[in-house]
């Protein structure tokens, strides 16, 4: 088997080679498929793909970078196909509507932008998330600098009684989807 990516450093785990190779083969087939409607690989599924960790596996840094490029390529292709079906106006109207929903969420009062978990449960740091939400608001309100990579790589500290992680993660995925939609 040829190695698509470098291996993780000695003594460090990496992504399971067979899982990565199988996923890439599925992605290749999906990208070149005549009928993309039946494909199980999409920009969204690429964003949420996870691999098992194994000693001697692929370098996570290299695979993650490739997945980001692959997500960008699938998003562009999906956008082109959707525009061909619905037209530019409908496509951008949908993206604007989703962007407005995001903006409505991120401009809520500080500390109240997402549901909180109980004090006994760990969530995302309210301070960290609110600060990043302000950056998202700046992007949508005034075009402040923010990239899909900024969204993909943001990390929040843990906090008891913090924001519910699933809600924050969903919003981040939606922001990425909108950003890729209007590139």
From TrEMBL:
Q: Which UniProt keywords apply?
A: Cell cycle, Cell division, Coiled coil, Cytoplasm
- Cited InterPro entries: CHP03543, DivIVA_domain, DivIVA_fam
Q: Which domain of life is it from?
A: Bacteria
Cellular compartments annotated: Cytoplasm
Q: Does the keyword Cytoplasm apply?
A: yes
Main subcellular localisation? cytoplasm
UniProt record similarity statement: Belongs to the DivIVA family.
Entry-linked NCBIfam families: DivI1A_domain (TIGR03544), divI1A_rptt_fam (TIGR03543)
Name-wise, this protein is Cell wall synthesis protein Wag31
